[in-house]
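Severity: low
Component: inverse-folding endpoint
Summary: output formatting inconsistent between runs
Steps to reproduce: submit the following structure tokens with default settings.
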């Protein structure tokens, strides 16, 4: 059935129409129409072929700057040259100008680019990156692939200064490169207005729990044959993002991870296995600075964290709350006064039904997972990683908190 104003505002409908959204069922264009002819009060967003078709999709299209010079129009080569000079400097841009719009590179050409842009990278990393570029038709100058340097530092006990011990490089792809690789395998569309943040219901259905430590996103894709794939991505609440001053944020990073996973599932065996993570090239500079924890001297793992959705970091709402440690020394002697006995707490783990109750109460009380995580770990000091870690007695406390928030 067509989308009504109860599901989407008139302004959003017009935006979907102007951006070229199509029918999820048949791929025909969608139009904004008045619902009077269908005995519906208000505007509709409908398939131009049938009002009975449900859902919209947005097909990925390559931009003018995403294709080789030979396929471009106008003065794209000069525009690329100016952009390249801004990214890597005039001297390097002059040396690599002949490759600035090349859609396919040989291993030798890719090696020349990589060693010029990242001269300190090890030979093995350069070799791996150049092979990936040659095999998958990627060009680092078009922000397809990056080598991100990580410094590991150690504090000098004599001077008190942090000194670099070693530097390693992580190879990552830009999300646009992932889209281009997938598009070469066939057309695909984004469904259900994804990528977007996951709902509580979606987290329960896919993860079996609600993640309070991370921002979670979801992407749904479909190809022309009707095959679909779902991808999820996470970004820890505790970690900052590169390019925040330019508009990047944690949700965006979670969304591009979910998109990459969905692309890999829709087009299996299409992506380089050597590259485990993805970045948003809009906020990642070519030959960017090194990633170091200046307080501890340890490598910051923001560019290559685990993508395993079952192993989120032990951090909630931006702060790690350490569980109480068992004292090593013997406890102080007790007085002769008999202490008042405390009620025995039920230490059994929450059940799946209780987790569903929490998800329903969150929605009813209009409380976010992050707010509930703050209540659990900052106010109550429980040090939980996820709601599934709650004990039965903690569940009762959470239930009471949410009922109060709901005005019960």
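Observed output (run 2 of 3):
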């Amino acid at each position: 059935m067509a989308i009504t104003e109860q599901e989407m505002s008139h302004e959003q409908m017009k935006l979907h129409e102007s951006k070229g959204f199509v029918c999820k069922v048949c791929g025909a264009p969608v139009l904004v129409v008045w619902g009077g002819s269908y005995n519906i009060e208000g505007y509709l967003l409908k398939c131009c072929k049938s009002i009975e078709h449900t859902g919209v999709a947005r097909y990925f299209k390559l931009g003018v700057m995403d294709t080789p010079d030979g396929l471009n129009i106008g003065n794209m080569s000069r525009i690329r040259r100016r952009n390249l000079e801004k990214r890597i400097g005039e001297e390097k841009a002059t040396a690599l100008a002949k490759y600035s719009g090349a859609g396919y590179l040989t291993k030798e050409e890719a090696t020349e680019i990589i060693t010029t842009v990242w001269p300190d990278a090890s030979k093995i990393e350069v070799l791996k990156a150049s092979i990936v570029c040659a095999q998958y038709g990627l060009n680092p100058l078009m922000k397809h692939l990056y080598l991100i340097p990580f410094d590991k530092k150690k504090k000098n006990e004599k001077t008190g200064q942090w000194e670099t011990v070693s530097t390693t490089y992580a190879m990552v792809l830009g999300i646009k490169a992932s889209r281009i690789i997938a598009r070469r395998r066939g057309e695909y569309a984004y469904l259900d207005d994804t990528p977007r943040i996951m709902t509580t219901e979606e987290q329960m259905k896919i993860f079996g729990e609600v993640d309070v430590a991370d921002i979670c996103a979801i992407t749904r894709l479909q190809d022309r044959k009707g095959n679909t794939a779902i991808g999820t991505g996470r970004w820890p609440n505790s970690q900052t993002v590169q390019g925040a001053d330019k508009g990047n944020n944690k949700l965006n990073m979670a969304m591009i991870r979910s998109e990459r996973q969905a692309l890999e599932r829709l087009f299996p065996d299409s992506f380089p296995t050597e590259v485990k993570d993805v970045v948003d090239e809009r906020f990642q500079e070519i030959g960017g600075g090194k990633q170091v924890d200046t307080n501890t001297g340890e490598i910051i793992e923001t560019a290559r964290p685990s993508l395993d959705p079952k192993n989120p970091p032990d951090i909630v709402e931006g702060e790690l709350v350490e569980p109480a440690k068992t004292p090593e020394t013997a406890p102080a002697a007790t007085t002769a006064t008999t202490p008042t006995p405390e009620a025995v707490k039920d230490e059994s783990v929450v059940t799946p039904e209780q987790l569903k109750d929490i998800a329903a109460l969150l929605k009813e009380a209009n409380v976010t997972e992050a707010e509930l995580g703050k209540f659990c770990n900052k106010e109550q000091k429980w040090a939980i990683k996820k709601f599934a870690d709650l004990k039965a007695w903690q569940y009762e406390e959470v239930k009471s908190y949410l009922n109060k928030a709901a005005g019960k």
